[in-house]
Amino acid sequence: MAAVRFGGRTIRIPGPPLLRIVVGLLLILGGMVGFLPILGFWMLPLGVLVLSVDLHPVRRVRRRIEVWWGRRRQRRETDG
Questions:
Q1: To pair with 65 at 20 to 30 A between CA atoms, which of 15, 57, 71, 74?
Q2: Burial tier of 80 (Cβ tally within 10 Å: 0-12, 13-18, 19+)
Q3: Crossing angle for the helix pair 56-79 and 43-51, to the nearest 10 degrees
């Protein structure tokens, strides 16, 4: 079973790789119309997280964002 580590947590993502890619793309597409009542902008990062399990370029982007976010949090803790 595939798993993603983000923010110190491990999230297991079940299913075959093709299904995960389709679900990730659908989440991203649904997030782009986030102004609709049920769909929301929360679907964009979730779609990227699901896609990062199987697609290496997306995984690199996710890791860069995670490193940037961690450094930002450290700066705020040391400044405050």
A1: 15
A2: exposed
A3: 120
Selection from 48, 74, 72 nearest residue 62 by Cα:
48
pLDDT in tens, 27-38: 999 888 888 777
> What CA–CA distance (Å, rounded) separates 41 from 46?
9
User: What is the three-state SS of the chain?
Assistant: CEEEEECCEEEEECCCHHHHHHHHHHHHHHHHCCCCCCCCCCHHHHHHHHHCCCCHHHHHHHHHHHHHHHHHHHHHHHHC
**Alpha carbon distance 5, 10 (integer Å):** 4
